[in-house]
Design goal:
The structure holds two protein chains of two kinds.
Chain A (H helix, E strand, L loop, with lengths): L1 H6 L5 H4 L5 H9 L2 E7 L5 H7 L4 H8 E5 L8 H5 L6 E7 L2 E3 H13 E7 L1 H5 L11 H11 L14 E4 L2 E4 L3 E6 L9 E3 L6 H13 L15 H4 L45 H4 L17 H12 L5 H9 L4 H5 L23 H4 L15 H7 L4
Parallel strand pairs in A: 1-2, 1-3, 3-5, 5-9
Antiparallel strand pairs in A: 4-8, 6-7
Chain B lengths: L8 E6 L3 H10 L8 E6 L7 H9 L4 E6 L10 H18 L7 E5 L5 H18 L53
Parallel strand pairs in B: 1-2, 1-3, 3-4
Helix pairs in contact in B: 1-4
Classes of the chains: A alpha/beta, B alpha/beta.
The complex binds iron/sulfur cluster (2 copies).
Chain lengths: ~375, ~180
């Protein structure tokens, strides 16, 4: 990694320090782009996607110096803090904003970079991490530090944001009540969706930035049509009597998957990926987020599913739709934080989401989140 | 339960049957709770799940969709579309933590003013027991300092930082980094 890191410019942490040393000046003279990559609540896939551009990474290396890349290089936050404001040309931020450290870095990178790019579906729409917005903080902590099959925590230890040790006070970032989008905290210049973004669009973005040939600020770097519009499968306006889970049928390789009863998010999803998933016999999961006209991707998909169902009989309709497990998790898979409600409300007397429906947690203490009335949550004031 | 709480219920009523039914209730001097605010739509099939979610996001305590009875739709098939949307929408609302009493689909024909009165009265009573819909804003306190509009800004739309309308994003060009104001 060190070699690659060196090949990418900037070299060691020293180059990231301010003070504009000789090397720094040389860099400026060469007019190289100054980049930063940051991962927040992310799986690491977005960072891997950057490496996925393979030998083109050398072009990036020729174009750019890197000042922060936690997954690959050893810079410290303080190195970034010490940079002059607006020193970086572009900061790529991937992952949702889930804790106070990630929010801090969002503000810091916004301040240090001229252009801030929300990189990947989590930074753009909340992504998979924001599905946790269907639960509240206490439920999540109960589950992770008590409920899961592999948790052994007889003392019921919970992470604390502060701990005083003999050596001094230790702190941890504060775990937020929800997972949010980057744009919920700072203005974002460009959105590069995808889980992860495809190498093609990463390169396009880097080239556009390098050449200064950029679309208007606020643009989503993808197409302005749906995945369906770019999908090679044959659409016939056929309706379906029933829906299937993906493993239950062997889909016809030529025909539209939705018209074969598979929940394919293509109609509600922005194109640009090249319809990768339907081309590989997988229904689209919706990772590119909604198109410009769509207010709420999941709600749009609810409509699409209803219109493909071929029945006028209430009972038959209910039965057919019952086959779709976990509608919220399916239709808002990548966009809970971008949904109209942003997550679950804690309505009086409403049941918590049925965890057992989508997973099979072991029976036992903490396995089922306690039912809470909205009043309770209000009493906690949303803070722990 | 708050005795003084008067729920706000948003009604999406189709032009041909339900809105006419509400008219009839008025003409016949039938009284129904003033908690219902009616939005007239041409057909209940026009009511997309987005509209229902948005109503809740904007502070409705309940949403009522009303259309012609199945088979009576002015556009033949419109209310079947509604019928197909609602079961999935109901399950979704439950996952979003919205109590089932807050959302209802009903069929009210042009001569069923009395049914309108009954449905609305029931709904208001049930929602009064539940109290106001808490929404999600209080739940996500970290967002509070950053929210300016009435509701969560849907994906893709970004607030113009500091009201700036610049569209320049070229390295080296001047951008207004509105994020700075949050520090
Ligand atoms: S629904 Fe899926 S399979 Fe069908 S056309 Fe759209 S993207 Fe392709
Ligand atoms: S087909 Fe859908 S899930 Fe697959 S890459 Fe494209 S947008 Fe993402």
């Amino acid at each position: 990694m060190t070699d690659t890191a060196h090949g990418l410019g900037a070299g060691g942490p020293a180059a990231g320090s301010p003070g504009a040393g000789a090397e720094d000046e040389a860099v400026q003279a060469r007019g190289k782009l100054k980049l930063a990559f940051f991962w927040a609540a992310a799986c690491g896939g977005c960072d891997v996607a950057v490496l996925d551009i393979h030998e083109k990474i050398l072009d990036v290396a020729a174009l750019a110096d890197i000042y922060l890349w936690p997954v690959a290089m050893d810079f410290k936050y303080k190195d970034v803090e010490a940079l002059p404001d607006r020193f970086l040309d572009v900061a790529f931020y991937n992952g949702a904003v889930r804790n106070s450290e990630q929010e801090h870095m969002a503000h810091l990178l916004r301040r240090k970079a001229k252009t801030l790019v929300a990189f990947g579906s989590c930074a753009c729409f909340g992504g998979i991490p924001s599905l946790a917005n269907l639960f509240d903080r206490e439920e999540i902590l109960d589950w992770v530090y008590g409920g899961t099959f592999s948790t052994e925590n007889p003392a019921g230890v919970r992470p604390q944001p502060r701990f005083t040790a003999p050596e001094g006070e230790l702190t941890l970032p504060e775990f937020y009540a929800g997972a949010y989008r980057l744009q919920d905290f700072v203005p974002v210049d460009y959105f590069l969706p995808g889980c992860p973004p495809t190498p093609e669009w990463i390169l396009k973005a880097v080239e556009a930035i390098a050449s200064g040939n950029l679309p208007p600020r606020g643009a989503v770097l993808a197409l302005d049509k749906t995945v369906c519009d770019t999908c090679p499968r044959e659409k016939t306006d056929k309706k379906v009597k029933e829906f299937h889970r993906h493993y239950e049928i062997i889909p016809d390789p030529e025909r539209c998957l939705l018209e074969q009863g598979l929940i394919c998010m293509g109609p509600a999803t922005r194109g640009g990926c090249g319809a990768l998933c339907p081309s590989a016999n997988m229904p689209c999961r919706g990772c590119y987020g909604p198109t410009r006209e769509v207010v709420d991707q999941g709600a749009k998909m609810l409509s699409a599913v209803a219109s493909i169902l071929d029945s006028d009989d209430e009972e038959e309709i209910r039965l057919a739709l019952a086959r779709i497990e976990d509608p919220a998790g399916t239709f808002w898979r990548f966009g809970m934080a971008a949904s109209l409600l942003g997550g679950r409300a804690f309505d009086a007397g409403s049941a918590p989401p049925d965890r057992a429906a989508s997973a099979t947690p072991p029976a036992g203490a903490g396995a089922t989140p306690p039912t809470r009335a909205g009043a309770d949550v209000a009493a906690r004031g949303g803070k722990k | 339960m708050n005795q003084d709480f008067e729920p706000k219920i948003l009604g999406f009523f189709c032009n041909w049957c339900s809105y006419a039914g509400a008219d009839l209730a008025g003409v016949s001097r039938l009284k129904y709770p003033a908690n219902l605010r009616i939005v007239r739509v041409m057909c209940s099939g026009r009511v997309e799940p987005t509209m229902v979610l948005k109503a809740f996001a904007c502070g409705a305590d309940g949403v009522l969709i009303s259309g012609c009875h199945p088979g009576d739709c002015h556009y033949q098939q419109g209310n079947y579309k509604t019928l197909r949307r609602v079961p999935l929408l109901e399950r979704t609302l439950a996952q979003f933590g919205i109590h089932p009493a807050r959302f209802r689909l009903t069929w009210i024909s042009a001569n069923e003013g009395q049914k309108l009165v009954q449905v609305v009265t029931e709904m208001v009573e049930e929602i009064k027991k539940l109290g106001p819909f808490p929404g999600t804003r209080a739940r996500f306190p970290e967002l509070a300092p950053h929210l300016s509009g009435a509701t969560v800004i849907p994906g893709g739309a970004i607030p113009a930082p500091g009201g700036a309308t610049t569209t320049v994003g070229v390295p080296g060009a001047t951008l207004v980094a509105g994020g700075e104001t949050h520090d």
